[in-house]
Amino acid sequence: MIEAIVASIRSNPNFRSDFEALVTDRLRQTLERIGPLPEPDDPSLERLLQSAGLFGLSADPAAKREAFRIATAAYELYGASMDGLADVLCVILSRLGNFPGLDFRGLGGESRGTLPLPLRIEGARRRLDNTVAATGGPLSLTDYQRALWSDLETGASVACSAPTSAGKSFVILNHIAQELASGAISSVAVIVPTRALVAQVAAALGKLTTGGPGLIPMIRTVPPTERLRGEGSVIYVMTQERLQVMLQDPDFSVDVLAVDEAHQIGEGDRGVVLQGVVDEIVQRRPDLRLHFIMPRMRNPDALPALFGRIGLVRKTVDSPVEQNVVLLEVDPSVPDVVRASLRGSASEKLIFQLQQILVAPAQKLAHLAWFFGRGAQNIVYADGQAACEKVAGLICDVIREVGEIDGSHTEARAELSRLVADHVHPDYPLATTVLSGVGYHYGNIPSLLRTAVERAFDARQLDYVVCTSTLLQGVNLPARNLFMHRPEKGEGKAMGAVDFWNLAGRAGRLGREFEGNVFVIDYAEWKSRPLEEEPEGDIDFALSKTVASTERLLAFIKDREAGANVPADLENTFSRLLVDHRRERLSQTLDRMALDEERRGSIASAIAAASQTMTLPDDVLFANPQISPHRQQRLYTKLVKDVPKKGVDYYMPPHPAGDWDITRERLIDVFRRLQVELDGEKTREYVHWATFALLWMRGEPLPDLIQFEIDKDATRVAVGQEEGKRLRGRAPATIIRKVLKDVEHDLRFRLVKQMSCYNSTLRRVLQDMGKHAAAERIPAIPLFLEVGASSKTMVSFIELGLSRISSSLLQKSASNYDMDPERAKDWLRRNDPTALDLPAACVREVLDLKLRG
């Protein structure tokens, strides 16, 4: 009965006209920055609200979306002038089960005494149904979140797929915290795709597991220096590469494994590693519970099935926050006029006259972000790191030109600026842009600064954050508005529909806003057409895709001389298949792929033939899944042959804390072997990387490393000019970006992989020679490269969860440079960070850690 009435109303031309007019009025209010409107004389609003109340009882998702749109638009337009409109909003949102939306406005539907008793009872019953017991107290959830919580309560593996703003991760993390507090589980691993997300998820879990019942679990974000034994309750928040290191301990396992942004299992070499890590953890713990978190995907059930799980699937296409896609058009013939329209709306376009012409893409993006975003919180998408800095600078220029810098956050912005200048470099553009309320955010920025920018934005001390595709990696940085102009993902690759809608979900977040605005600039010029494409993508698997390119893979397997400049997905796939062959699991792996018998046989034969040519031990091969077995074999052959001749000390990596000259020369020798045996190259680049890596591992501050490169560039130019060459120096900002990239991509990734391979290979060679004591004392160079420290105390602070910057500053206040994590924790308990002359961001980081005991 209700569904028939709802369908009849929605198909009525008068309803459609009234609905269109309301939505257009709300858009005009937003774009023209109009305050609350007086109560309308037209009875159409009353009719719409009555319809919305009925739509809230419908099972039709489209009707529910329109109910939400009507209720929230009416409240934003007329809530200040119409008595009883808040009550209507409470009734409709209660029927929709959107209690987080009600609570953030402090409306608390069923408790409103102005509502008739039957409606109060109805709202109270709905809220009770949607409320769960969490570690921090009762949580009122949306219908989707409540259904997801119920799925988790069954003890089954769960795959959840929903729009970005649906609050999936929020539910998973709260349930993990609840199970740890109750003692139902004692160990959890959460795999996230980036280091930026590691810090964010670890911080969220830290808050959820502090102050509740039960023991506070240890949260580990980097592999520990020593093998774990009886650690008690523990949460591992790591990338798949870091978790792969944990798996080198044969006893490592967890009770629950959650994979965030799980659809990225289909993306290249890292997707291959992700599948391998999950496979290994499942193999060790068959009763493991697996949870997969992903945006809207067509086939989320494919993930539990891949790992042999029947698992529950909880999927929705509905968002509890409305995302308004606003099309902005700048006519090249009239470049000082902007036309705005709502996607899908037939209403007349709104026209805005600007004070200047807009021509260049970056200028257009920056000016429109200011024009339509001022006074609100805004994310601006840029295609790369240089573009990030440029757009941020242009927004600042517009703000300064119109003289609209908000003076209420001057001190907080100055503190953030000092943090950037002191711990990256005074010439880093971020130190200047934050003073105007504009930050930027990309993956290579040091973690403490990323966190500081996120916190400043969350506290509304920054009005704009310009971001790269780190937002697509799940970083939770919600805003009212999102601005995009011809977005790309990676080098010149147009953004597809799945990524577009994943990014669009950052505009307006559950519990923060009723709606968000996605400003799409000059859509006609975009390389892709995401608005016309299906927003749901298909989950596929990078391992299967690489194997499906059989001829390409076979050629690589047979090429023993391939160096480092080969596609990483081929290396990782070859390593994975060879490990499976050695463990007699290859048939099981190939069974999960759609291969005909001919291709399957060719691959199995090629892997078997390659294995017969290799003397590389299984443990070494398993420990290094991201380096081609052929390259590993070259290094192994070299060490087996030469270590007995030249002695252990000649091949032993030096500890970074030793004498500078001696340590540098020995590290140069090690890096030369890496370059020759693993990369197949004979340049002298290894000298630069050994020097740079040594400075980094000794804990040298990032500003000093950057200044060293700036000075080196100045010397290069001066020497060249003396020789009559016309050379130009590089801009400091360019050099800073290059150093940050070198740290993240080379020191903390490429060289970590290669030194892990070197250490595990050397360890095995020494063990086979009977040199067990020497094998045990190989310095943990991969860890030192990963964390940028080698002092035991500084490494211990980092293992406890502090950033490199905070750990370095704390070490300077400690007399003991040889503290293990437990002693480091005791030292933190004894010392008040507010008395240690630390930046405010470092003090907050230490206090957050101390709250966890």
Automatic annotation (TrEMBL):
Classification via PROSITE patterns: HELICASE_ATP_BIND_1 (PS51192), HELICASE_CTER (PS51194)
Keyword ATP-binding: yes
Annotated TM spans: none
Matching InterPro entries: DEAD/DEAH_box_helicase_dom (IPR011545), Hel308_SKI2-like (IPR050474), Helicase_ATP-bd (IPR014001), Helicase_C-like (IPR001650), P-loop_NTPase (IPR027417)
GO molecular-function term, one example from the UniProt record: helicase activity
Keyword Hydrolase carried by entry: yes
Domain of life: Bacteria
Every Helicase C-terminal domain range: 353-554
Pfam family, one: DEAD
Gene3D superfamilies: P-loop containing nucleotide triphosphate hydrolases (3.40.50.300)
Helicase ATP-binding domain boundaries: 149-296
Keywords: ATP-binding, Helicase, Hydrolase, Nucleotide-binding
UniProt xrefs under PANTHER family: DNA POLYMERASE THETA, PUTATIVE (AFU_ORTHOLOGUE AFUA_1G05260)-RELATED, DNA-DIRECTED DNA POLYMERASE
Stated name of the protein: DEAD/DEAH box helicase
Organism: Ancylobacter novellus (Thiobacillus novellus)
